[in-house]
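Recap from last week: sequence in, structure out.
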Amino acid sequence: MGFKYFSGGGCDCPPMPDPSKYDIVTVVEIGNYTICGIHYTGCTTFEGKKIFVFYCISERDLRGHDSRGRPLDPHFSEKEGMFPVARFEPTERGWKMANNFCVAQTQIDNQ
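Predicted structure tokens:
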């Protein structure tokens, strides 16, 4: 009996948040990692605020993705595309944790 990391779901309800209704608010790049503060319109959890970390996806990539109207799914996935490698609580503490994660991972990557 193993832990299933990615499930197929089973709910016919719309995704929460809607990956096509977002605004990129803040972006910081640290090494190969990009911290991104995003607001999802209509999302009720954490007032639609999310903090993600992406790997090998730059601010330019994210903003280009946004300008073309492509959805940005906040969930982890094994598929190719723009999916986060980490998510943090959308607070000042969460932002600091995301920053610490990126600094530590960059140091590990450079060993």
